[in-house]
Amino acid sequence: MNNPNSSPTLTNFLQSCKHRIFAQLKHYLPETNLYPSKLYEAMRYVVLNGGKRIRPLLVYATGQALGASLESLDRPAAAVELIHCYSLVHDDLPAIDDDNLRRNLPTCHKAYDEATAILVGDALQCQAFLCLEDLEMIHVLAQASGCYGMVAGQGLDLEASEKANLTDLKALEQMHALKTGALLQASIEMGCLGAHCHDPRIKMTLKKFGYHIGLAFQIQDDILDTEGHTDVLGKTAGLDTRHKKVTYTRLLGITKAKEQREQHYQNAMNILSHSGLPTHELESLCTYIINRNC
Ligand code: GRG
User: Fold this and answer.
1) Cβ atoms within 10 Å of 68's Cβ, excluding its own
2) Is the model's pTM score more than 0.70?
3) Partner of 9 at 20 to 30 A CA spacing, among 113, 119, 233, 257?
4) 91 C-alpha vs ligand 1 centroid, how far in Å?
5) Peptide bond just before 36 cis, omega within 30 deg
6) How far is CA 191 from CA 14, 74, 111, in A?
7) 64 CA to middle of ligand 1, Å?
């Protein structure tokens, strides 16, 4: 495990993909010299200020393992990040998590206002689909982000908070597999599509990998909410506890949560090592995901 005060480093390939995605995202966002300029400025504020870019990196690293060109991965990489950014803006709203800080800056509704933040989320979601030309990618992203994926996970979370009925690990996993896992899995699937990989064995292998790395990501998120600090996280630490959310750390305790994270990480790494693919970049990304400090 890395020093908790320093974030683990990405490989040069992943670092350069981070620069690449920034340029792509800029390209797909409206300029602020056009009207409605406040909306466009807020969209750029949300998307272009920080973030680890884990979902686009998963697109690039998966596509790279399957021999795709970076150009063929640019559109899906931008699309998954735009969906992710929209979900963060809506998640931070007073009606959902009511948070003030995101990526070390005031949340969109604080920096602008609530109505603008709602519009920003709506507009980013549409921009995501405008990035895509491939019908199969559009289908994968809609399935993963809408009412059968991320939004369904958020719905389960809301219902569980209202009824306080989320009490077992299976139900918690199911909620996170949708709320967080579906978009991470879609990023991997879109990397496959960008590489024109239709081999069912490889697709199934990477799907299983996505399931485990998605849960490892979420458990680390819960651990950081418990053990992290607001100034390092760039978002409010301890918010899940304050909202009495059922998390891995609350359900299992910190030690068992860390064991679960390790288990899912090992499963993900084993799947990669038996895949027969050149997965160095994906492995590096996995290690970053579970060791990250923000
Ligand atoms: C329409 C109200 C409405 C909601 C849309 C809000 C929502 C659906 C879904 C919530 C999905 C969500 C925000 C899940 C949390 C996932 C998560 C752990 C986000 C943090 O991701 P990081 O760590 O963030 O990758 P950065 O800032 O690095 O990109």
Assistant:
1) 21
2) yes
3) 257
4) 6
5) yes
6) 14, 10, 34
7) 26
Whether 145 contacts 186, CB under 8 Å? yes
Candidate from 91, 98, 239, 286 with most ligand 1 atoms within 8 A of CB, to mutate:
91
**pLDDT (tens digit, 9 = 90+) per residue, 238-268?**
999 888 888 999 999 999 999 999 999 999 9
One-letter identity of residue 63: G
**Can you tell me the distance from the alpha carbon of 29 to that of 261, in angstroms, rounded to the nearest whole number?**
36
Q: Judge if the beta carbon of residue 51 lies within 6 A of ligand 1.
A: yes
Q: Is 67 helix (H, G, I), strand (E, B) or coil?
A: coil
The dihedral through the CA atoms of 98, 101, 103, 109 has a sign that is positive
| Distance between CA atoms of residues 63 and 184, nearest Å | 14
- Name residue 195's amino acid: A
Distance (Å, whole) CA 221 – CA 54: 13
Can you give the pLDDT at residue 163? 76
Residue indicated by tokens 């019908």: 135
Could you say which DSSP state residue 119 is in? H
54 ligand 1 Cβ < 6 A = yes
Amino acid sitting at position 179: K
For the chain, give the number of residues. Answer: 294
Amino acid type, 284: S
